[in-house]
Amino acid sequence: MSRIFLTTLSLLLLLLAPYAAGEGYKFKDSQFHNLFPFLGRDEDSNTELTGDSPEDKKQFNDRTPYSLPKNAVQSTSKMGQGFYDQTCPDVEKIVSKTFAQILKDNPGAIAHVIRLQFHDCFVNGCDASILLDYTPSGDNVEKSSSFNGLLLKGADLIDDIKAKVEEKCPGIVSCADIMAFSTYEAMAMAGLPRQRAVGGRKDSIISLASIVESNNLPLPDWTIDQMMELFGRKGFNIEEMVVLLGAHSVGMAHCDFFMQRAFNFNGTGKPDPVLPKDVVNELQKACPNGGTALFRNPPVAFDTTPTVLDNLFFQEMVQKKRTLLLSDSHLYEDPRTKPIVEQMANDHTLFPKRFPEVMYKLTSLNVLKGTEGEIRKICRSTN
Q1: Which cysteines are joined by disulfide bonds (predicted)?
Q2: 125 is in an annotated binding site
Q3: Dihedral of CA 172/178/184/186: which sign?
């Protein structure tokens, strides 16, 4: 079966741009990076969504989490929990043990793996194509793209876990499944109820940087309308869009991502007026040296619990108007998304419930299975 490339996928990338003395903090028109995972649930088809016009509601009502555009998701009928119970019964234990050991030395592994999973699934499906260093075609791979190569972390963690699995079950478990199992393990380590991941994915032999870069990445100053249109094409409604941005409940952002909001918003020489003074002071204190080299600015946590998947990201947005990324700030400014943000902030049980529900959808996106693809022995190269 031929593989359908999802050239309309995207995730938001923010540029890490050097500071030019005397010119302030500026964004370029390319090389952006940001995390937007995506979620859904059956009840959404019966929930009226907030919108400014009947067209808004018409676009996003009546979408269930699995009613994606035609050909967007292949059938997962042969996938399931316990997929390796006969062929590699210890695989999930191996992943769990290895990930726990990694986490002792690298608390950021939780955010890295979740983000890596998203980068893989939303470019060309959950096929571990993001892990390839090269392909037989000789084309530039996803990992080499400017949108991935300099910023993306976590591939080495999957290498370590894959090596442990290969010792026990050589040639049995795909890299795509190991990524999914690792993602579910990261979610459990971040405080969510433990669940078994679905298995049965195969690995791609194709990875193309051109797919990452072919108008598939929205800019960080996009309006909610622009994001809604993109997410709508992918089959996600506005509520799902907000919940998916809740992936920022874990992880950190370097000052390069957001410092223009604290120092020179839109070239005004003043901070972003949306940010309260105490937040501006916090960000200016965290990012005092605008002239430092890329990646040398200190990272700042998205919320006060950067290794826990909880609703504090939304709480701080509502109670303190604290956001790092400009794209996040739009969520509380737009009347269509603000009520959803407030719901997530006010009910501490809702986001932890919704996130696992939508991760099933994410990790099932456009998978290879059966005779498609292969099971790589090494995740960085095809067999």
Answers
A1: 88-169, 121-126, 175-379, 255-287
A2: yes
A3: positive
Q: Computed over its alpha carbons, how large is the radius of gyration of the chain?
A: 20
By CB neighbour count within 10 A (0-12 exposed, 13-18 middle, 19+ buried), where does 320 fall? Answer: middle
Does 167 carry a binding-site annotation? no
C-alpha–C-alpha distance, residues 344 and 64, integer Å: 19
- Looking at residue 352, its amino acid is P
Global confidence as pTM:
0.78
Annotated binding-site residue? 303: yes
The pLDDT mean for the chain works out to 79
- 33 contacts 12 by C-beta, under 8 angstroms: yes
Provide CB contacts within 8 A for 64, sequence distance 6+.
40, 42, 44, 45
Which positions are annotated as active-site residues?
119
**Are the C-beta atoms of residues 189 and 212 closer than 8 Å to each other?**
no
Residue 123 assigned to a binding site? yes
CB 37 within 8 A of CB 247: yes
